[in-house]
Structures are given as C-alpha cells and as structure tokens.
Design brief:
The chain is an alpha/beta fold and 319 residues long. Among the domains are: 30 residues; 124 residues, Rossmann fold (3-Layer(aba) Sandwich). Helix content is 45%, strand content 13%. It contains 10 helices and 10 strands. The strands form 3 sheets. A 4-stranded parallel beta sheet has the order 2-1-3-4, with helices on both faces. Strand 7, helix 7 and strand 8 form a beta-alpha-beta unit. Helix 2 crosses helix 5, helix 5 runs antiparallel to helix 6 and helix 6 packs parallel to helix 10. It is globular. 40% of the residues are buried.
C-alpha cells in the first residue's frame, strides 16, 4: 500500500515536472509570436521597416526602433527597447548606421538577423560622388567622409538585393510561410525594377548632371544614373562644412550650371538655404528616406522616391 502510494506520488511528480518543462518550452517559443501567431520582427529604421512589412505581409508584426522624425544616426535605445529585442523572431537592420542598434542586437541573442550591409556591396563616398564612367571604370570621390556609405536604399537596384536577403531571413524564422514571403519578395523586386527604369528614363535627357545636397546621402543614386552629387557636408547630416568646401561649392555651382540646392525634411536646412541665398539659387527637398513624416512628399518608399525623381528632373532640366 505504501509502496503503491510512493510510486503513484513519484509518477505524478514526474509528470508535473515534464508538464512544466513542456509549458516552459512552449512559452519560450511563443515569445517570438503575437497572440494571433504573427512573427515578431524588429526593424532598425524606416527603409528596413518597409522591407520587413512588404515581404512579411500578414504573417509578421513589425516594430520600428526609430520613430518618425527622429534622425536615425543619433538614435539611442531605452532599456525596455533593448530588452524587447530578445523576444523577437527576426531583426532587420543596417550595421554601422546606428551604433546603439548594433550593440543591442549583439546583446539580444536573436538568431535570425538580416544585416542589409552584408546583403549588398558598400562603398566609401565623400562629399562629392561622380557617377560617370572614367578611364579604368573608377568613380571619382573627393573629401572622403571616412567609412562606408550606408545609404544603399536610395538605389533601387541595391535595395532589391537587400530585399532578397530579408526574404531568406524571414523564411528561416518562419518556414511555414516561406512561399508567401517569396511571392511578396518577387512582387516588391518587380516594383523596384520599375522604379529603376523610371529613374533611367526620366533622367536621360538633362541639361546638367550636378546637384547639391545637404549631406552625402545620394552617392549610390548618383552612381546608378550617371549624376554628380555635391554635398555641403559629408555622410554625417549634422556636420558643418569647412570654409574651403563652401568656397568650392560656389565655384562648381557656376561652372556646372546648378539651379537648386536640396535640403531634407529631418535635418536642419539652414546651411542649404544660406548657400542658395548667396548664389541666388532655388531650394527644394530631396528626401533621404530615413523616415516618413507629415512633411514627406509621399506616404511610403515608392511615393517619396518618385517625388525625388520629379525634383531631380526639375533641378537638372530634364525633358
């Protein structure tokens, strides 16, 4: 009798332990899912967030770490945001752009990570990027800002390469919906190819090749379409230009028949407006697409990119 009671108690205790372990395992697995079963995805800033949403579709819940209107380069994360990264199923980010995000991801232990910087090739760009072919196929770069240029999303071709990598990461994190992720990726890449064709066709016939921007965000776009970007400052949107740089901009604006100085919706436009005033040039917006706000000339990536194309066509005298 006592023996049977002892065996029965031990069996119940063992079953309870196994039940708790099973519940614990389920709880751990469910941490990367919403209550309705969607995969939790964290994205560092708008271009990465847009990719995750477009590719993930109805199967993901995407949380952007950079709020609209916040300069991505200066982002700091709260302790809560850092802790939440350990509960997501996948992360989409661009290593090197936001140090706070890089550190948080390294600490999170997230298994499925798409790093846009590793999904396409990055180049070192300075304040001047010449997109024309030169002897030996080299591009001319001057006053190098140091380090690689992260603004790959402004080139539709490079952005499409990143999209394909994000697709693989989401499929690995959520293999049950692999076919849907592939379908969504194919549709997105098709739209990006169409955008690339629009830029090529829209900028074919132009009176000038050179445009001036606040900071060096459009180097990849300039290279893709044979333009020359002249930035007031380097890759850092908050950096101040040297007196030598301002003087050289005065000279090149006259030599290359520059009509417009472009500023951004997030960064301070004071320097751009001052330069334009000194040279009696027009000002307009060329959006680096680091975030969507009420001031953005478009509701999403494609809307803003087509607004950028229209602004470049007007500034460069495209027909």
């Amino acid at each position: 009798m006592n023996i049977r009671r002892h065996i029965s108690t031990a069996a119940v205790a063992g079953a309870s332990v196994l039940g708790l372990l099973a519940l614990s395992a389920c709880s751990t697995a469910d941490a990367t899912r919403t209550d309705d079963g969607k995969l939790k995805v964290a994205a560092s800033f708008y271009p990465m967030e847009f990719l995750a949403e477009q590719i993930g579709g109805d199967h993901v819940e995407v949380t952007g770490l950079t709020k609209p209107g916040v300069e991505p380069h200066d982002l700091t994360l709260t302790a809560q945001q850092t802790a939440q990264l350990s509960t997501v199923g996948a992360v989409v980010y661009l290593k090197g752009l936001q140090p706070a995000v890089d550190d948080a991801i390294a600490q999170s232990g997230v298994e499925n990570v798409a790093d846009a910087a590793a999904l396409t090739s990055l180049e070192a760009h300075g304040t001047e990027v010449d997109g024309h072919d030169h002897a030996g196929g080299e591009h001319a770069h001057s006053e190098s800002g140091g380090g690689k240029d992260p603004h790959i999303w402004l080139d539709p071709v490079k952005y499409a390469e990143v999209a394909k990598g994000v697709n693989k990461t989401l499929a690995k994190a959520d293999p049950d919906h692999k076919a849907d992720y592939q379908k969504n990726t194919d549709a997105l890449v098709k739209k990006l190819r169409a955008l690339d064709a629009d830029f090529k066709d829209g900028l074919k016939k132009r009176a000038s090749d050179t445009f001036i921007t606040t900071h060096a965000a459009f180097g990849y776009l300039a290279e893709r379409y044979g333009l020359t970007e002249e930035a007031i400052s380097g890759l850092d949107p908050e950096s101040e230009p040297s007196a030598h740089r301002v003087k050289s901009l005065h000279t090149l604006a006259k030599e290359h028949h520059v009509s417009t100085v472009f500023f951004e919706t997030i960064a301070n436009p004071a320097t751009a407006r001052t330069l334009a005033g000194d040279l009696h040039l027009k000002t307009d917006v060329l959006d680096p697409l680091e975030g969507i706000t009420a001031k953005s000339r478009g509701k999403d990536y494609f809307g803003v990119q087509r607004a950028n194309l229209a602004a470049l066509q007007k500034a460069l005298g495209s027909k």
